[in-house]
Structure formats: structure tokens, C-alpha cells
Design a protein that fits this description.
This protein has a four-stranded mixed sheet with strand order 1-2-4-3, sandwiched between helices. It is an alpha/beta fold. The chain has one domain: 3-Layer(aba) Sandwich (Collagenase (Catalytic Domain)). Helix content is 49%, strand content 16%. The chain is globular, with a radius of gyration of 15 Å.
């Protein structure tokens, strides 16, 4: 699996931890081992620009996902075809603010956002209540299982 993690945010990020999380999530979702994924950490100004350009919404956001090959999760014994999954962009400054409100660390919030972004790349959404319930339950299960294995 090719997982590229780049930190352009100026915020301290354990890049190896995020690569390990991405590998874990993609393995659990039965994504082909040769699939490519990029995770980018950016500052607030960059995230604001991306949020305006791609979502037509003002201000920064916590995470954006940019799917490429529209890969979907595989099943046990039946992985997806190899491909370019896409890019996840995370803003540590926004994540740190959310972490305070949620009562956990900024690192935990960024791990949550990364998991959330990967699920978006795999076609999950939370626009409807049932979709949200499914996506957030899966996100929680994946993250807690990853953290318990560390």
C-alpha cells in the first residue's frame, strides 16, 4: 500500500502514526494492498482556500476528501481492484479546537478525522440520518480497534 503523509501545517504531527492508521483502515475495509492514498496536513489559510474553492463554503474546515478512482470497500476474501483512492486534507488547527470541545487530544481528533476522510473516499457519507449512523459507527469501530492494537 502506498500511503504518503505530508505535513505542511507547521503543527507537530506523527506522520508514521497516520500512515499506520490508514494502512489499518484500508486493510479492514479490504482495499487492495497496492492502492495509493495521500494525507496532507495544512494550515488554516490553505484549508480556508480549499474549502471555498471546492465546497463553496467560507472559512476553514477540519477535513476534506478528494476521491480519485471511486474505489469502494471490498469484502472478506474479495479486495477492491488496485487504484488511486485519493487525497485527504486535514487542518490541525481546526482539529485542535474541536478536540478541546470533545475532551480529547488534538492527535486523537486528527486520527478520527483521517478515519472519517478515508471512509468518505470509500463512498461513505453522512447526509442522511441512516448514512450518518452507519458511517459514524464504522468510523468509531475502526478507530477504537486501531488504538487498542497500538
Amino acid at each position: 500500500m502506498s500511503i504518503e503523509v505530508n505535513n505542511e501545517s507547521g503543527y507537530e504531527v506523527d506522520e508514521a502514526e497516520f500512515a499506520a492508521l490508514a494502512r489499518f483502515v484500508l486493510d479492514q475495509m479490504h482495499v487492495h494492498p497496492q492502492t495509493e492514498l495521500s494525507i496532507l496536513f495544512v494550515d488554516t489559510a490553505t484549508m480556508t482556500d480549499l474549502h471555498v474553492k471546492w465546497m463553496d463554503e467560507p472559512g476553514p474546515t477540519d477535513v476534506l476528501s478528494f476521491p480519485m478512482d471511486e474505489l469502494r470497500p471490498g469484502r472478506e476474501g474479495d479486495v477492491t481492484p488496485a487504484g488511486l483512492l485519493g487525497d485527504i486534507v486535514v487542518c490541525p488547527e481546526v482539529a485542535a479546537e474541536q478536540a478541546v470541545k470533545a475532551g480529547h487530544s488534538a492527535a486523537e481528533e486528527m486520527l478520527l478525522l483521517t478515519t472519517h476522510g478515508i471512509l468518505h473516499l470509500l463512498g461513505y457519507d453522512h447526509a442522511e440520518p441512516e448514512e450518518e449512523k452507519e458511517m459514524f459507527a464504522l468510523q468509531r469501530k475502526l478507530l477504537l480497534t486501531f488504538l487498542a492494537s497500538r
